[in-house]
Amino acid sequence: MSDATKEIDALIALMARLPGLGPRSARRAVLHMIKKRGLLMAPLAEALQSVAASARECLNCGNIGTSDICDICASPKRQTGEICVVEDVADLWAMERAAVFKGRYHVLGGTLSALDAIGPDELRIPKLLDRVVSEEVSEVILALNATIDGQTTAHYIASELERRDVAVTSLAQGVPIGGELDYLDDGTISAALKARKAL
C-alpha cells in the first residue's frame, strides 16, 4: 500500500465492512464518490458525522432515532393498545414501509439462542412484559422471522404472556402475493396449508 493511496484504501476497507458490499463493490462506490465528491462525498461525510452524534436507541421500544423516545412511541395516534414485536430495527422499518400497522413496536434486539447463550435477559423481553402492563396493551403481535430461533422466541413470549389478559397473535405465513407453488419450499407450502381460510 503506497502512502499516496493509503487514505483511499482505508476508506475502501471500511466500506467493504458494510452489509451487501464486498471489496469490489466498495471500491466502485468509493471511486464514484471521489468523482462526485462535491455532490456526494462532502454531504455524505457531513450526514455520517451528524448521525454518529445524534442517533440513539429509543428507551421505550428500541427503535433508532435522534431522541430518547422515538416518533412512533411519542405519537398519541399510535396508542391503539397493540404492540408489534420484531427481532431488530430493520424489521420495524420494513413494517413501517408497508404502512398498514398503526400501533407501536417493540424491538427485541435478536432471538433466543441456546448455542449463543442468548436468553430472555439478553434481549428486551423483560421490558416487553413491563410495557404490556404499563401501556394497558390488549394485543401483542409477534412478527418474528420464520426461523427456528424466531419461532422459539415467539413461543417463549407467548407462554410468558399467558398469565396476562392480552391476546397474542402472529403474522400469517405462507404463499407470498405473486408466488408460484412450484418455486416455494416445503415449509412455506406447509405453513400456507395450515393457515388456509374460507373464500
Walk me through what this model shows.
The structure is a single chain. With 199 residues, the protein is an alpha/beta fold. Helices cover 44% and strands 11% of the residues. It contains eight helices and six strands. It has a four-stranded parallel beta sheet. Strands 1-2 form a two-stranded antiparallel sheet. Helix 1 packs across helix 2 and helix 2 crosses helix 3. The longest helix is centred in the N-terminal third of the chain and has 18 residues. It is globular and about 65 Å long. The model has no long low-confidence stretch (mean pLDDT 90).
Task: Walk me through the topology.
Elements: H1 6-15, H2 23-35, H3 37-54, E1 56-57, E2 64-65, H4 71-74, E3 82-86, H5 89-98, E4 104-107, H6 125-134, E5 139-142, H7 148-161, E6 167-170, H8 186-194
Parallel strand pairs: 3-4, 3-5, 5-6
Antiparallel strand pairs: 1-2
Short structural description:
This protein is 44% helix and 11% strand.
Keywords:
199 residues, alpha/beta, four-stranded parallel β-sheet, two-stranded antiparallel ribbon, 8 helices
Distance between the termini: 65 Å
Mean pLDDT: 90
Q: Helix and strand string, N-terminal first?
A: HHHEEHEHEHEHEH
Structural class, from helix and strand content?
alpha/beta
Strand percentage: 5-15%
The best one-word shape is globular
Low-confidence regions: none
Radius of gyration from the alpha-carbon trace, in angstroms: 21 Å
Number of helices: 8
Q: In percent, how helical is the residue content?
A: 40-55%
Largest sheet features: 4 strands, parallel
Number of DSSP E strands: 6
Cross-sheet strand order for the largest sheet? 4-3-5-6
